[in-house]
Amino acid sequence: xxxxxxxxxxxxxxxxxxxxxxxxxxxxxxxxxxxxxxxxxxxxxxxxxxxxxxxxxxxxxxxxxxxxxxxxxxxxxxxxxxxxxxxxxxxxxxxxxxxxxxxxxxxxxxxxxxxxxxxxxxxxxxxxxxxxxxxxxxxx
Length: 140
Ligand SMILES: CC(C)(COP(=O)(O)OP(=O)(O)OC[C@H]1O[C@@H](n2cnc3c(N)ncnc32)[C@H](O)[C@@H]1OP(=O)(O)O)[C@@H](O)C(=O)NCCC(=O)NCCS
Fold this sequence. Notes:
A hairpin with a 5-residue loop joins β2 (81-85) and β3. The protein is 44% helix and 28% strand. The protein is α+β, with helices and mostly antiparallel strands and 140 residues long.
């Protein structure tokens, strides 16, 4: 049963500008520990890949925050929501701490899809619930 859906479009140029202005501090605010390590490695090899990695994570987390109906409000935080990758390359959502507890208490599961083009990154997220009492209750 659908709990909620969320979408987001992110301007890659804004992410690049924030990185130029705030450096690692901006990435550390948006990325989980694991993501930050991946971002560092990618940025070291090719800075533009780091920018795009950060932009897709940014948009995926915003789309997820809308699908769960919280927006960027507790227990939803940037760093408690991680976007990982399956061996196939498909992204999936890994949650931590209070957000994970909140999510599991509602028997939720998430599906995330991300894309990027020259100047934009975009994401779409579907969150399901296995508990009929929570069906369609995102944002309520
Ligand atoms: C959801 C959120 C992360 C999106 O922020 P953004 O990147 O600046 O804006 P976007 O253009 O990507 O998305 C805006 C749309 O998100 C949707 N949205 C807003 N809050 C939402 C929520 N809690 N759940 C799902 N969708 C939400 C709305 O449709 C909104 O469009 P609208 O303003 O035309 O109604 C942000 O609005 C947020 O964190 N909201 C919760 C905290 C809050 O309300 N703060 C302000 C009051 S103190």
